[in-house]
Amino acid sequence: MTKLQIQYPPQLVSQVKKRVAGHNLTGFVAGMGPMHPRVMLLGEAPGRQEAKTGIPFVGSSGKELMKMLALAGLTRDDVYITSVVRSRPFSIRQVQDRKTGAMVEKHPNRTPTKKEVLAYAPLFDWEIKTVQPQIIVPLGNTSLQRLLGPTAKVGSLHGLPQKTTILESLPDDSGYEKGQHQYWVYPMYHPAAYLYARRLEPTVRKDWQEFGNWLQRN
Ligand code: URA
């Protein structure tokens, strides 16, 4: 497994952490992989396994993602992997334990809020300028919309590459503006989407196979 974990500027990390203080977020998982890669995979936020190990995409979504990468002729070591939020968002639920009947507190994963994605935006802006990928593969709507705005939907854009500028955070952190640099953006479904909706699997497999063909042609 690639051991190249990126070192973020500590000042930027503490600025971001201050902005999400009090939110239900835990751990901190740095992006990982080679500098100047051909492909950057962009997820949503770490899950439980990732927050525990500090390595992106090692849980059930990660295992599925590695199978899809293989369909494109790629391995984890070939790509840079990160996500738009660096800590695990969780919700707090009181549930009844089936065996004992006692109420217990659970902390399941949840999708990061728009506010949390914006809080982490300066860190991702820095990361993308430092890593300089040629192609960004956003996985699901959270990362796709971070790049292209709220009207972009993975249901209609998956498997369709486009050369485009991407959003970066405004200097006053109040929102986003279009950046200058153009990247190839190749949207894909998030692996968790078809873990929950198996009917999507043939589409997702086809998208990744075609991504492999596209990489060979371009
Ligand atoms: N989902 C993500 O977006 N990133 C991970 O690392 C794991 C699950």
UniProtKB/TrEMBL annotation:
The keyword Metal-binding applies. Residues 30-209 form the Uracil-DNA glycosylase-like domain. It holds the Pfam family UDG. GO terms for biological process: DNA repair. It comes from the Bacteria. Its EC number is 3.2.2.-. This is Uracil-DNA glycosylase, family 4. The lineage of its organism: Bacteria, Bacillati, Bacillota, Bacilli, Lactobacillales. The keyword Nucleotide-binding does not apply. PANTHER family: TYPE-4 URACIL-DNA GLYCOSYLASE, TYPE-5 URACIL-DNA GLYCOSYLASE. InterPro entries: UDG_Type-4/5, Uracil-DNA_glycosylase-like, Uracil-DNA_glycosylase-like_sf. It comes from Limosilactobacillus coleohominis 101-4-CHN. GO terms for molecular function: 4 iron, 4 sulfur cluster binding; deaminated base DNA N-glycosylase activity; metal ion binding.
